[in-house]
Each structure stands twice: as C-alpha cells, then as structure tokens.
Amino acid sequence: MPQLSDIEALPETNGNRLAELRRRRRWNQQRLATESGYSLSAVKKFEQGLRSLDRADVILRFSKALDCHPTEITGQPYMPPGTDHDGQAAVAATAAVHRALLRHGRPTRPADAEVARVELPSLRQRVAEVNGLRHKAALARTAELLPQLLRDLQVAAEVSTGNDRRAAFDLLTSGYECAMQYLYKLGRTWDATLATERVLWSAEETEDPLRVIAAKWYDAGEFLAIGEHDEAGAIIDGALTDLGAVRGHGPEKTSLEGAFHLKAALNHARATDQRAADRHLKLAEEVAGELGEDRNDYQLQFGPTNVAIWSVTLPVEMGRGRDAVRQAERVRVPEQYAPERRTQYLIDVGRAHFYNGQPDDAYRAFMEAERLAPQQTRMHAGVKETVRVMRRTARRTPHDEFALRLGVA
C-alpha cells in the first residue's frame, strides 16, 4: 500500500497545469476566460482545483484556446505509485510495444525458425488470448504478451500469400487494436495514435469491407479526442454511408451501424449538442433492438447492454449528473460482461454521482471499479481529477487510502 511519503512525488493538478500553460502564453486569467468562453470566476476555480477539470468538453475548450494537446492539461501519461507492481509492469512494456508498432510496413527479415512457426490457427488463438486479457483489464499480462505477438503477426503477414495473407492481416489488425486500447488505458496517447494508424493500414490489406469500415471507428475517435468534431463527424458519416453500400444485412453489419451511432452520439455530446447526441442514441437503441443481442464484432462491443451503458456515459460527458444517476438506476450490467467495459461504466457512474453532489456514492463506484480493474481505474484521468477535487473541497475522509493508491494528493 502506498505510504504517505509517496505524496511528495505526486503529479500536479489539472488546474495547476492549466495555469502554467496560461502563463507560458503570457496571458492573465481574464485573457484565458475571454478566449475559452468561461467566466473569470470559473477560470480561477479551475486553476485553484476548486472546480473539477475532468470533463472532455471543458478540457478541449481550454486546449483549443491555449493551442495545446489535451494531455498537457490532464498530465498523461501517469506513472503508477512505487508499490503498484502490476501497474509498473504494464507501463514497462510500452517501449517494446512502441518498437513493434514502428516496425509495421518494414521488412521483418525473419529467421528460418520464425517462418517455420507461422501457423494461423495458433496465431488466432494467441490473438484471442491477448484480447481476452485486455477485456479482463489484465494490463500487466497483456503487456507481457503483446510485443512478441505483434512481431509474429508481422512475420505472418509478410510471408503469407493469398487467403492466408488476408487472414494474417486480419489478425494483425486485431493485434494492433489490442495494443491501441492497452496504450490508451495507460494514457500513452501518442503511441495509441500510432497504433490506430496501423489498424487502418492493416485493415485495408484484409480486403474485407466491414473490417475496413470498423477501423474508421477508431480513426473518428482520434479526432474526437482532440476536439475536431467536424472531422470526426465526417468520418462517422462516411462510415455509415459505406455500410449502407455493403450488400447483405448480417449481424456484423448491423452491429457496426449501431456502434457508429454511439460514436456519433459521443461526438455530439462533447460538442455540447445534446439534441443531436440524443438523436443518435435513439438510433443506436433502435439498432440494438433489431440486433437483439450483445456482440463483439471487430472488437467493437455493441448491443442492448452497451446502449444502456452509453445512456449513462453521454449525460456524464455533458455534466448532467442528475440525468446520469437517474439513468444508472435503470441499468443492470451482466456479471459476465467484460471487466474492462464494466469498469468504465462504474467510473462514469462515479463521475455522475460527483456531478450530482453525492461524493460518498462517487467513491463507492470508483472503488468498485478499482476492485475490477486496478490499473485501468488508477490511470484514468477523470478518476484522478474527480477524487483530487473531492479531497480538496472536503476534510480528511475514510477514502484517503484510495486517493493515495491513485497517486492523488
């Protein structure tokens, strides 16, 4: 368990970083208020840590005003506390994963033994294993397996021909998707963007139109993350148009359609367009009703359960705590649902309670998320900022040890 002495090495608050970015531009607080559209009083509270700077739309507004990347405000990536051995193991592998990503498209120069080991059924099993570990939020074990798996998949894609080559690239795409999600969970945004590019390129080589369209879900997410809502929207609209041109009406196509409507809803929510967000959520609900089951096509979870989860996520993104809490009371996430996704849902529920003025309920949701997925929860920017503000605006609480595990002063 982290010791009190760990506090000396804890990161600054989002508010402190915001103030430092402002000072670098030689702006006073009034100038930042004018450029961002917030009041002077709000800017002061954000910088003092008296108002939570955790919502994506708020961070994006400041990052656009200051012409910086959102992670310069959130402080990502984070280093796990010294006693979080699994977290340190997960972080330690990021360099090896980065090297594997850089090798994409380069000659693999495999040894004869590596070529002899190329067996697609075995590789398919290994890809399923590593993605299963990711869904379980077992980041340390995922990190242990990913670098060598990516190398073996790259060799397979290079030496295979015909249908085997297309199958190898399909597996490589899944491997890159796993790497992307793993890196995002650790706050390695730049490396995750590199992985997203590899997903797009390798998907094209599969010659599977649905696989290519699915990859655009992540491409849209890259622009959404930096507040380029028009570009993200254009990618989403293009993907939905492409889906309409694909022949047939199989469940994979239907699932992808629903997933893109959810992405569109998130894009509009972060752009503070509630009406458009609600419209796309409603369309996703209709698609989920047509589908009638939860699916995980192309690593994109979609179905009635995921739509219910997003019905909480979207009001959280817009700071509507009361609506999110009310909606959460109706949601029942099955125990067999992936811990990774259940954890994200619990984090959203915690933030909803915080916005609704229920700090004890927020702590309970966060600690349940930590029980399911310790590293995913402790490295989450929204959890860190929310807990930091709750501690700053309250006296010592029974939850201080949890805050220390997050690395929050």
From TrEMBL:
InterPro entries: Cro/C1-type_HTH, Lambda_DNA-bd_dom_sf, TPR_rpt. TPR repeats lie at residues 343-376. Keywords: TPR repeat. The keyword Glycosyltransferase does not apply. Residues 18-73 form the HTH cro/C1-type domain. Signal peptide: none annotated. Pfam families: HTH_31 (PF13560). SMART domains: HTH_XRE (SM00530). The keyword Endoplasmic reticulum does not apply. Gene3D superfamilies: lambda repressor-like DNA-binding domains (1.10.260.40). It comes from the Bacteria. One of its GO terms (molecular function) is DNA binding. This is XRE family transcriptional regulator. It comes from Wenjunlia vitaminophila. The lineage of its organism: Bacteria, Bacillati, Actinomycetota, Actinomycetes, Kitasatosporales.
